[in-house]
Amino acid sequence: MGLDDKLSNKADELKGKGKESYGKATDDESMEAEGKVDQAKGNLKQAGEKVKDAFKSD
Length: 58
Prior knowledge:
CsbD, YjbJ_sf, 2 helices
């Protein structure tokens, strides 16, 4: 997995933060929850990338 994947994962996380902020600002609980889910997906993917990188360096 390369830099493109890492950037994509970070973009998902940032998109989620934006959705969460928008949901909070507009009292849209659905959008806020969707943003939190997007952030969690991005974080999980990034964690997987870190594990893969750790095994590659050994």
